[in-house]
UniProtKB/TrEMBL annotation:
Protein name per Swiss-Prot or TrEMBL: Stage II sporulation protein M
Pfam families: SpoIIM
The organism of origin for this protein: Nostoc commune NIES-4072
Transmembrane domains' residue ranges: 106-126, 163-184, 191-209, 229-247, 268-289, 295-313
Residues in the signal sequence: none
Keywords on record: Membrane, Transmembrane, Transmembrane helix
Domain of life according to the entry: Bacteria
Length: 317
């Protein structure tokens, strides 16, 4: 191989790759056009092959080191740069994308919330009118503990916080994903989950109220419930989006409607997961902690809920 002729033929590619890399290092990957990004990837592969050939032919250490430096810089920008872009996209979604999709799908989330509140109101009304109704919703062991022993049940979490927190997260995630998946039943299962969970919280709330334990009970519920319940409402909204695509595709074909509304549902799911993880940690470690005054728990719960509302209300400039 004529080394000088080979270097002369390949050197324009090396110089072009170096010029593109200098531009990226100065202005970022976004400064390149789509064609230049494709050119960058092609040049990287070409120069990497040149490096391998230079090593095989033992063409001077200076040239080998220069090509090694060039390929290392290109590798860093192509692969680590793409990872940076992925993280930037994730950050941008949680910064602006999630609040935007919550605002766009608010009617569906509100419908899920209304069904939950309706269930809670029905349970409260019937539990006062007919005490036997409560036993249809609330486990008898829990009723006995509250009514006969005048004790709440959350103390069982103390001492096993990590296990309890993990169990709580898994349970909440299963309920939420069930509400989302319920959309494929034309929303019937989603409706059932929203109403049933409302009935449960309404019946339990009435039970503790009748036995003068409402203040400590809601002190326990509010810190994690300020995130947990909205997450479940988001899940219900996602389920109703899927049901909308199935039942009322409108101007879309049903398959296209599922893609459109399903995309919004998936974005809501991305918001649900971190909310439930945080809520599970709070419920496992903070909410049942007897050393934290109830007043602080109320303040923490209200503060988290206000922050959530402000976050979901933000708009990108």
């Amino acid at each position: 191989m004529n080394i000088q002729r080979w270097i002369a033929r390949r050197e324009p590619n090396w110089q072009r790759l170096d010029a593109l890399l200098r531009q990226i290092e100065k202005k970022g990957l976004k400064s390149l056009r789509a064609a230049e990004i494709r050119e960058l990837a092609s040049l990287y592969r070409s120069v990497a092959a040149d490096l391998a050939r230079a090593r095989t032919q033992q063409i001077g250490n200076t040239l080998i080191q220069s090509l090694q430096s060039l390929t290392t810089r290109a590798y860093t920008q192509i692969y680590q740069g793409s990872r940076r872009q992925e993280w930037q996209a994730i950050l941008k979604f949680y910064q602006w994308g999630l609040p935007s999709v919550v605002q766009k799908t608010f009617a569906y989330i509100a419908a899920a919330t209304a069904l939950f509140l309706l269930g809670a109101l029905v349970a409260w009304w019937y539990s006062w009118q007919n005490p036997s109704f409560m036993s249809l919703i609330v486990p008898e062991s829990l009723i006995t503990k509250v009514r006969d022993e005048h004790k709440l049940w959350m103390g069982s979490i103390v001492g096993v916080e990590p296990l309890a927190s993990s169990s709580i997260m898994i349970n909440n995630l299963s309920v939420s994903f069930g509400a989302v998946a319920g959309g494929i039943t034309a929303g019937l299962y989603t409706v059932y989950l929203m109403v049933f969970n409302g009935l449960l919280i309404g019946a339990v709330g009435t039970l503790v109220g009748q036995n003068n334990l409402a203040y400590p009970f809601w002190a326990f519920v509010l810190p994690h419930g300020s995130l947990e319940l909205p997450a479940i409402f988001f899940a219900g909204g996602a389920g109703f989006l899927l049901a909308r695509a199935i039942l009322f595709p409108g101007k879309y074909r049903r398959g296209d409607a599922l893609k459109f509304y399903g995309s919004q549902a998936v974005q809501l799911i991305f918001g649900i997961v971190p909310m439930l993880v945080i809520a599970g940690a709070i419920e496992g470690f903070f909410s049942p902690n007897p050393s934290v005054p109830d007043a602080i728990k109320y303040l923490a719960g209200m503060g988290l809920f206000i922050l959530l509302v402000l976050y979901c209300s933000r708009k990108e400039n």
